[in-house]
Design brief:
This protein is α+β, with helices and mostly antiparallel strands. It folds into 6 domains: 128 residues, Ubiquitin-like (UB roll), CATH 3.10.20.310; 70 residues, membrane protein fhac (Ubiquitin-like (UB roll), Roll); 82 residues, Ubiquitin-like (UB roll) (Roll), CATH 3.10.20.310; 76 residues, membrane protein fhac (Ubiquitin-like (UB roll)); 70 residues, Ubiquitin-like (UB roll) (Roll), CATH 3.10.20.310; 177 residues, Beta Barrel (Porin). The protein is 21% helix and 35% strand. It has 14 helices and 26 strands. Strands 17, 18, 19, 20, 21, 22, 23, 24, 25 and 26 form a 10-stranded antiparallel sheet that branches. A hairpin with an 8-residue loop joins strand 6 and strand 7. The longest helix is centred in the first third of the chain and has 23 residues. It is extended and about 120 Å long.
């Protein structure tokens, strides 16, 4: 007979004497086998027991129910025991076994693991209980972790409780978890060390842990400041340069805290080592020494540099090249045999070789420098290993992300054209040119597609803020009080007139064509300037440019006033990407008025209205990689302004 919470192995009453003892022994043996089979394997480390079957305490027959017999029995119900009411829903969400479904031990095991993964329980186990109706009851037994009733901090004098609580994981109402309080101890220690308490000690109060009280006991120790940073055995760089490149700094009142940070030390060791290795000290090692004064409040940091010998370049070789000959490629390699090793020259040579392939359309070519120590001491060889691939042509040029800028404004900066070679150098230059428009803070060109010999160029843009409104004021002894109001638009469109006042007020008009417009107002007590500027960098998408600036300027002196008003018109012409010419015309009226007694005779002689004109030709040559933040290249320009060329004698 199967009882509610036990497994029986037969029916009827047990006999007496030897036969009864024999039956009892058999039942006990069967129960042990069944328990070991279903309950001996741990499912979740030490905290999650495997499924178990409760054995009968008083079996009534010798018939044995094998564990496999329970497989497929219907689940009568699922029970959860040992949990707090607040955790019931969380546990139920982890259970897959449902009433009415066939029993499957694997599913029960998964449930045990899932419940244990909640991290709220010390142990999780499952019981499988047969019933008289040949069904099973699946019971999940949990032992709750203690609930955190409070989080206390003691011993902190220099850092407030609120600041410490912000870095803690432990929260009132959560479960007491070893991972949580160990993480908190590390976080508190890191916080204190970041503020100069290098000898801080944080321990957990164990006595209150059973009551759910998390208590962090802090021993702060002395606060340490760095009063000197030095570099031992430094032979390659000035000490000030290494000090500039490293993050570990000595204390400087108000300006620098001078606290010691372990992360900074590790970073600085790596930075110094890299600087030396880039200069040819390939075996360089860097360590640090900390020297505390007797009070443990002052510290000297010494970076000890074991630089070793400085290597020279041995053989410079190229492998993997079939398209371009080795002599052709070596002409672009700046490293030379016998010279000191220099990592910057290695990178420059790598890029130069890559650009040769890139200009020929070898889109996926790779150039990797490989170093090898020579048998001769102090000599290192380098081999540039080339994976050539094959050349590709440009399919389509696709532009995405220009939500407020017309396509042609972007296309005139892109140096890739459908049908042409997919030039990776042109890709790099195109990205720089797009940045120079100041319309897009981020731009990228990516090859896409699966055609055998072509790739589309996807130009991905991030639209930036192109309009600016600035207001300010200042005062000086010469100009007096002066204000400034500036309204400018780098993405102006003079043909985009508003259809309503709403479009104008919400900035939806006069925008989209990449032109420049500015209204500048500088009112003041002694000095005033008013100017309106319009510029078209590509007149009708041609290499010609146009710029016009109308202005009025006045300045008050003690004995006279000076007024200027005029206009400057400039035409430009580009010849390729590096050469341009300009021709500017200027017309201006000048008035010297309100002459007072005592004015200088030279100024009095210039009283009244005058006409001023000039012609100003110019030429510029530029090879910089960026007009905003250039890192290489040159800029050379020359101008000449001839006054009176269009009339006017002033």
């Amino acid at each position: 007979m199967l009882q509610k919470s036990v497994v029986t192995f037969g029916a009827g009453r047990a006999g007496r004497g030897a036969l009864g003892d024999q039956r009892l022994w058999k039942v006990a043996a069967c129960a042990a086998v069944l328990a070991l089979t279903l309950g001996a394997e741990p499912l979740f480390s030490a905290t999650a027991a495997s499924s178990q079957v409760a054995a009968a305490s008083r079996p009534a027959a010798a018939t044995v129910i094998k564990p496999s017999v329970l497989a497929g029995w219907p689940v009568a119900r699922v029970e959860i025991r040992g949990n707090r009411p607040s955790d019931l829903t969380a546990i139920e969400n982890q259970i897959r076994v449902t009433a009415g479904s066939p029993y499957n031990r694997a599913e029960v095991d998964v449930d045990v693991r899932s419940i244990a993964s909640l991290g709220r329980f010390v142990t999780v186990r499952a019981q499988v209980i047969p019933t008289e109706q040949h069904q099973v009851i699946v019971r999940y037994m949990v032992q709750e972790r203690p609930e955190i009733t409070s989080v206390l901090i003691t011993g902190n004098r220099h850092i407030k409780d609120k600041t410490i609580h912000e870095v803690l994981l432990a929260r009132t109402g959560g479960a007491v978890d070893q991972f949580v309080y160990q993480s908190d101890i590390r976080a508190i220690t890191k916080l204190y060390r970041s503020r100069g308490f290098n000898f801080v000690r944080v321990v957990l109060g164990k006595k209150s842990l059973a009551k759910g009280i998390i208590k962090y006991e802090i021993t702060e120790g002395p606060r340490v400041r760095i009063n000197d940073v030095s570099f031992v055995n430094n032979v390659a760089f000035p000490d000030w340069y290494l000090g500039f490149k490293t993050d570990t700094k000595s204390h400087l009142w108000i300006i620098r805290s001078g606290y010691l940070r372990q992360n900074d030390l590790r970073h600085d060791e790596g930075e110094i080592r890299k600087l030396y290795q880039d200069r040819g000290y390939l075996d360089c090692r860097v360590d640090h020494l900390l020297q505390y004064d007797p009070t443990l409040r002052r510290l000297k940091v010494k970076f000890v540099i074991q630089h070793g010998r400085r290597y020279r370049v041995g053989k410079v070789q190229i492998s993997g090249n079939t398209v371009f000959s080795t002599p052709v490629l070596l002409k672009h390699v700046t490293m030379r045999s016998g010279k000191y090793w220099n990592h910057d020259l290695v990178k420059a040579s790598q890029q130069a070789i890559a650009d040769i392939y890139g200009r020929a359309g070898y889109l996926y070519s790779q150039v990797e420098p490989q170093f090898a120590y020579s048998s001769r001491p102090g000599i290192a060889n380098v081999t540039f290993v080339i994976t050539e691939g094959k050349p590709y042509h440009v399919g389509r040029v696709i532009i995405r992300g220009n939500t407020a800028v017309q396509d042609h404004v972007v296309r005139r900066q892109v140096r890739l054209f459908p049908g042409g070679l997919y030039d990776t150098v042109a890709v790099r230059n195109s990205v720089n040119r797009i940045h120079d428009t100041r319309l897009f803070p981020h731009a990228n060109i990516t090859p896409i597609g699966n055609e055998p010999n072509t790739r589309d160029a996807l130009v991905t843009l991030q639209q930036g803020q192109t309009g600016r409104f600035m207001i300010g004021a200042g005062v000086s002894t010469d100009a007096g009080l002066i204000g400034q109001v500036s309204l400018s638009q780098d993405n102006f469109d003079i043909t985009d007139w508003p259809h309503s006042w709403s479009e104008l007020l919400h900035g939806q008009a006069f925008k989209g064509n990449g032109q420049f417009a500015q209204i500048l107002l500088e009112p003041g007590t002694n000095y005033q300037l008013y100017k309106v500027t319009f510029a078209e960098p590509y007149l009708w998408d041609s290499p010609y440019s146009f710029r016009n600036s109308a202005y009025f300027f006045t300045e008050l002196f003690n004995s006279y006033n000076l007024n200027r008003g005029g206009d400057r018109v400039t035409f430009g012409r580009r010849f390729g990407d590096h050469l341009s010419t300009t021709l500017a015309f200027r017309g201006e009226t000048v008035q010297v008025g309100n002459l007072q007694s005592g004015v200088a005779p030279e100024i009095a002689a210039q009283g009244g209205w005058h006409l001023l004109t000039s012609v100003k030709p110019g030429i510029s040559y530029y090879t910089t990689d960026s007009s905003i933040f250039p890192t290489r290249g040159i800029v050379a320009s020359a101008t000449w302004e001839q006054y009176g060329a269009l009339g006017g004698v002033y």
